[in-house]
Design brief:
Length: 338
Amino acid sequence: MGGARAGLGDVTGRPLPVVVDAMGGDRAPGEIVAGARRAADELGIEVVLVGPPDEVGDTGGLEILPASEVIGMDEDPGQSVRRKKDSSLVRAAEAVRDGRALAMVSAGNTGATMASALLRMGRLKGIIRPAIATPIPQIGSHPTVLLDAGANTECTPAMLVQFAQMGAAYSTARYGVSDPTVALLSIGEEKSKGTPLVKETHALLEATPGLRFVGNAEGRDLIKDAPDVVVTDGFTGNVALKTLEGALRFFMDTLLEVLTRNEETRKASDVLLPYLAPLAAEFDPDNTGGAVLLGVDGVCVISHGSSSAQAIVSAVRVAHDVATAGLVDRLAHAVTVA
């Protein structure tokens, strides 16, 4: 079990920090460091940055965990993690493994972030494969947890059952849902619909004790009256997620263009924007806090590659909240009990 899970402070009683990969992401290190500083100031969370000290820039007093190497966004995940042992990603994962940090956050190479967490923290006992859990905002309610969102392009029914168990535990730890509903993504509500993988998984989920399985969900169910947790393989999940993101971005851009087209629409926007702005904020990726890698023996938050300072603030908040809520122990218990 990860060292940070023995308690929330170090030997001196000081709260354990969230460690942030200062060099990860398209806008690193500037936006990443700015976000880490804001998280420490605004949230009161202990934050430590990881990276080459002479490249990180002004940390505003935040501690730097030195790392001499950086894994690029286009590098091979497995090879780069094995080759660059003194990279910011590897050092961040080791800090969590060794109990020197509560959780890690990175907006860098997603595959390398996953590989660092898996190779350094290890898998929880009994977990076949870790999965990426991504929140899908729901208006007026807590987000739906979609997993797997890209860690495993090919899955077995047993893996999907574990994703369901971990997703339910995550929904409880992060959003306080006491008895999460779980659905299986398919092409129809009927249990006879879907690929052989979906059909076999459906039967297993129905027979899994302690799981509130509500049947199949279709793609259109992801953004309206959605279940608390939706399970699928990583290939399908990633396609579904990026389709939603693209459609939402297109809709928002089109709406903004219409509202600023001429004098009449600009007058209408003066009335509508106070109502639309809060909705836009709910769907802003910078406010969701990123995805969490479930199934490793530690907390790892993966923020999107174009993360702004606000996105890092949100990611640090999520990392701290799920770690202090005992997410890793909840995951281990959910799979062990089942």
